Amino acid sequence: PNSNTRDEYDSLRDGLSVLSESELVLIDMRYFQGRTQSEVARSMGTNQAKVSRNEKKILRKLKNSFDMAA
After folding, report:
1. Residues 6+ apart with CB under 8 A from 55
2. 54 Cβ neighbours under 8 A, 6+ residues apart
3. Run of H or E residues at 35
4. How do residues 13-64 score in pLDDT, each as one tens digit?
5. How far is CA 1 from CA 7, 9, 13, 45, in A?
6. Do 61 and 18 contact (CB within 8 A), yes or no?
7. Are 52 and 39 within 8 A, CB to CB?
8. CB 29 within 8 A of CB 38
9. Burial of 51 (0-12, 13-18, 19+ CB in 10 A)
10. What is the pLDDT of residue 12?
């Protein structure tokens, strides 16, 4: 990989390191497994509204982490 790709990978890894295990699981299911919020909720034993709130919180947390690194 070229240096830009490596820098992007390092930035992503560092950004994800601010997340807890349960936050990582939620992001993995939503964005890498392509599950709906309802499917994630069933899998995590909660409801869709809670998944939606948590997802928004996680995305804000990631954005803040990336903004601080830039």
Report:
1. 26, 27, 30, 37
2. 23, 26
3. none
4. 888 889 999 999 999 999 999 999 999 999 999 999 999 999 999 999 999 8
5. 10, 10, 16, 40
6. yes
7. no
8. no
9. buried
10. 81
